[in-house]
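S.,

Sequence below, as promised.
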Amino acid sequence: MRDAEVCVVGAGPHALTVVSHLLTARPSLKDGIVVVDPSGQWLRTWREQFGRLEIGVLRSPMVHHPDVWPGSLARFTSDHALKRSLLPYDPPLTSVFDSFCSALVDQLQLDSLLCAASVGEIHTERHGYRVTTSSGSFHARQVVWAGNTARPIVPEPLTKSFGRASFQHSSTIDLRNIPSLDGEHILVIGGGLTAGHLVLGALKRSARVTLVTRRPIVERNFDVEPGWLGPRFLKGFERQRNPERRLQMVRLARGGGSMPGWMCQRLESEIDAGRLTHVVGSIESGSLSDTGPLELCVSGQLLEADRCWLATGTRPHFCADAALAPHVIRQVDGIPVLRQDLCLGRRSMYLTGRLAAIELGPAAGNLWGARVAALRITRAVTGFDLRDDALEEPGSRICRGQKG
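The prediction came back faster than expected:
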């Protein structure tokens, strides 16, 4: 395998955002980037996730995407006369966002950067890292970690039953493989948008559905308040230098699951039609016999069902990947403490995604966080600040940097 200036681990939206920013700042870096992902494809896991849950529209606004210029997705949609969601804040349709990302990959010829392999180990060397993969090893001066380190969250009363066929987490459910649920009763646990998609998927397949949430459904257009995407809330966050306190602020800001207004309206109409039942309470116990239905006790109320789908979220932890874990020196509850440029310690390994939350805030895992992380990493790697240097609005779709 060829040595690299930059090794990017992962090929999802965050990785694509970093690479597009690096190449906008320094096009000559292209031959020095290697992107390692088991699928060998850009956005393969993202497409699978959205496909499995039949997610037809993103939650983020049109200006958040992997390209450098914020208006390029809107321009792409307009130029190709593509359908818009017509929802508040104009979130893009999944199909449109996917097509846009494919166009970005084609425009920058990024498929040539991919290495279809999994990363086994990353060893520190004098002038960088030795990256060992399932396809061989190579030297990289710098590493950008954009891999998935999320672990499913399972309510404690259900841990003994989790893993059985009737108890599934949303991260493993594939609605495409379930043609019908006619005659079945499905319990969906969770108050976030994923729970809403699972409810709609089960109803579409003629199931009787009960949605269980620990509190009344919280209506919110985005998973964090917009103030966290700018100085309104981030100024106070950045003034707080204690990482433990920062992580508390992150978790308080995210505050559990929520749903945008359009999903709340869909669920309310299903409740009014008698196809959906909503139960608010705490899960006290869960059991599953070999012959009878599964049982859940929610705040003293016994619920029986054929299947239980957990939309209870995931939690990132650096130990979820053995290749990353040895490089984390300081952490708080599984989240690394990074420098402002998102670097781990004094070396040249950078993190993007939810693992950067202590530095970027509660929206670190979103497309907004991908953009902010890419700007910081690009400045650290190339010395080129895409925020300060003028970028020409693209005639077609891609912005061009000023350095070669």
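The two ends are 25 Å apart (CA to CA).

Coffee later?
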